Amino acid sequence: YGEDALKPVRIWIETEQSRAPRGGLGAVKAAANYAASLQASVRAKKAGFDQVLWLDAKEHAYVEEVGTMNLFAVFGDTLVTPPLSDSILAGITRDSILALAPSLGIKAEERRISVKELIEGQKNGTLKEVFGSGTAAVVSPVGELSSGTDKIIIGNGQPGEIALRFYNEITGIQRGIKPDTRGWLTKVVSGATVSAAAQL
Questions:
Q1: Dihedral (C-alpha) 122, 47, 3, 68: value to the nearest 10 degrees?
Q2: What global pTM score does this model have?
Q3: For the chain, does the N or the C end have fewer beta carbons within 10 angstroms?
């Protein structure tokens, strides 16, 4: 836990292959979604990247997911994530971030994000952060996006302020350090305790 778990990653922008086309299985946790991503992921790792940024299958212009995670970008003071579709998984951590944003004073929008907007945002200084969200990592900051022809450096090699705030808030709730005001936590009782209670 903590900042050490949030080392920014290098991401390859995949402009040829697709993780999931519209009208397919992209919105569910099906093995086919992961199988379709393996070739590009291996290629990206051989080139020194940690994961792949997946774009829409039709135009290869709009961001969908990063690796197996939902993607967020911060433009100015606004958190933006692509709207759900049948090619984007409805992640629980994504939902948690969107639910927490208002209480943290963060404006959030669900709308399409183009690679062009990311590039222009980096050039004009409006792009502040990019990060993925998922169950295992909670939040994974992106430090670099590259397609070979375009390279976007984000931040200064440290996790962004907003990514860090969400990471600390969610892991704090998970660990019982912060209050669970939304009823997200479920108390799990071991089988032995249940058996003992049943005999009383």
A1: 90
A2: 0.86
A3: C
Instruction: Give the three-class secondary structure for 78.
Output: strand
What is the enclosing helix (H) or strand (E) of 150? Answer: none
pLDDT digits (tens, 9 = 90+) for 134-183: 998 999 999 999 998 889 999 887 899 999 999 999 999 999 999 999 99
Task: Give the tens place of pLDDT for each residue, 12-63.
Answer: 999 887 776 665 555 566 666 666 677 788 899 999 999 999 999 889 999 9
Strands 78-81, 138-146: pairing kind: unpaired
Contacts of 173 (CB under 8 A, 6+ apart): 179, 180, 184, 185
Distance of CA 180 to the CA centre of its chain: 22
CA 184 to chain centre: 19
Q: Both tokens of residue 154?
A: 């984000």
